[in-house]
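Whiteboard transcription, Tuesday session. T.W. wrote the structure tokens on the left side:
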């Protein structure tokens, strides 16, 4: 009997792909990383959540989020307001990143779900289903509306201390949008979609085929090996990939055994983040002008101000996201990269787990950037009160992006590859 194979994206260990009960997670037998989570094979529920998310997203962009009232003057902001303000203030990098993470990426994510699931549900044909579904893997990490909501709550806390703030329709839309997008993703097994989109004549690599390759290698025959698609997790032999121009036979993504120059690029990006973290904490992230008196806030002073005002829960959130998480991520990634570089054998499973955690937590450091974008767009009352972004926000945003890119550039399979090489060298010597 032939069985489909699935390879762990973190250690490249091969498993037989079995059916598991809905809601259960299949984990790698070697490193413990999740392989796949089974959901009911229907597209109705995720499609319904995607349509709901689209309606909420349009409301969130069409109506005010907050209305700020002070000294008889009012000011309202929308999702796009922070982007416009950053651009007008001469911070195009901040404008671009806020636009991508809070507007563009969420829209592409929701749109891709609807574009692919609707034809599958209702049976009509549209072009480019596989390329659109492939976009999800690239877009998903940059959709940060959940982080934006935390930044919104921090900004709301700061404003309520000295002015009247009213939540608008967009505020409640964003609050409802986050669980909608979460349910949209968690109620769908991506394997189900890839199987429905795959070519009819697609050949899956099987246990039996790999056993033949192993026997051929043992007999001295030439074996090219196999690769795993990083987008759809398809396992293909080198020969099969070569027949498709080096691309995945199922989704069309370029396939490779390992990311070229992965460790060097990851190290370089991490070092750049470490350098920029210094000015991110030295320079102010924003300057608040109130009744002609200007006061600049750094990340640390902002946390201290929240603590002094008694807002301990918000202070803890900001401290964790803006100070603790970046430092922890830089230290842990540095340790993982260094251990991989020298091929240390011990704690391979622990190293893999740490890498997975750093991938998940890095994006939450954008809280301060979103908070500044909201305050700068909302507090524009001339001589009464204004909030202007500072260079510290640019440096800090760059730190967040560089650490995320560093984690994405790293190939965690190298943790096991290099340790295996060191072990073999030790046994031979």
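and on the right, the sequence the group agreed on:
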């Amino acid at each position: 009997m032939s069985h489909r194979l699935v390879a762990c994206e973190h250690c490249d260990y091969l498993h037989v792909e079995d059916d598991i009960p809905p809601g259960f997670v299949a984990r790698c037998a070697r490193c413990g990383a999740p392989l796949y989570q089974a959901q009911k094979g229907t597209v109705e529920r995720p499609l319904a959540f995607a349509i709901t998310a689209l309606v909420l997203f349009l409301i969130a962009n069409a109506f005010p989020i907050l209305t700020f009232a002070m000294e008889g003057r009012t000011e309202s902001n929308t999702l796009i307001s922070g982007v416009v303000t950053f651009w007008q203030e001469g911070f195009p990098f901040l404008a671009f990143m806020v636009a991508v993470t809070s507007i563009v990426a969420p829209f592409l994510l929701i749109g891709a779900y609807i574009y692919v699931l609707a034809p599958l549900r209702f049976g009509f044909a549209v072009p480019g289903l596989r390329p659109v579904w492939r976009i999800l893997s690239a877009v998903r990490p940059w959709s940060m509306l959940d982080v934006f909501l935390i930044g919104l709550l921090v900004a709301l806390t700061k404003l309520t201390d000295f002015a009247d703030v009213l939540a608008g329709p967009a505020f409640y839309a964003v609050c409802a949008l986050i669980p909608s997008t979460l349910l949209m993703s968690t109620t769908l097994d991506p394997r189900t979609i890839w199987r429905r989109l795959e070519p009819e004549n697609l050949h899956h690599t099987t246990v039996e085929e790999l056993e033949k390759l192993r026997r051929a290698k043992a007999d001295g025959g030439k074996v090219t090996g196999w690769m795993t698609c990083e987008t759809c997790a398809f396992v293909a032999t080198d020969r099969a990939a070569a027949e498709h121009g080096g691309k995945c036979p199922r989704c069309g993504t370029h396939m490779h055994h390992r990311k070229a120059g992965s460790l060097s690029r990851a190290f370089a990006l991490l070092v750049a983040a470490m350098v920029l973290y210094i000015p991110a904490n030295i320079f102010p992230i924003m300057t608040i002008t109130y009744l002609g008196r200007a006061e600049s806030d750094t990340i640390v002073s902002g946390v201290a101000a929240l603590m002094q005002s008694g807002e301990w829960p918000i202070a803890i959130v900001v401290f964790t996201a803006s100070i603790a998480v970046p430092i922890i991520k830089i230290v842990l990634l540095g340790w993982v990269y260094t251990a991989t570089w020298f091929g240390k054998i011990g704690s391979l499973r622990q190293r893999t787990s740490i890498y997975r955690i750093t991938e998940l937590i890095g994006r939450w450091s954008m809280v301060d950037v979103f908070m500044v974008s909201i305050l700068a767009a909302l507090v524009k009352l001339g001589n009464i009160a204004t909030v202007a972004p500072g260079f510290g926000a640019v440096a800090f945003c760059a730190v967040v992006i560089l650490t995320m890119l560093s984690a994405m550039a790293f190939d965690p399979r190298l943790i096991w590859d290099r340790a295996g090489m060191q072990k073999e060298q030790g046994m031979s010597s």
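Someone added at the bottom: The first strand starts at residue 5 and ends at 7.
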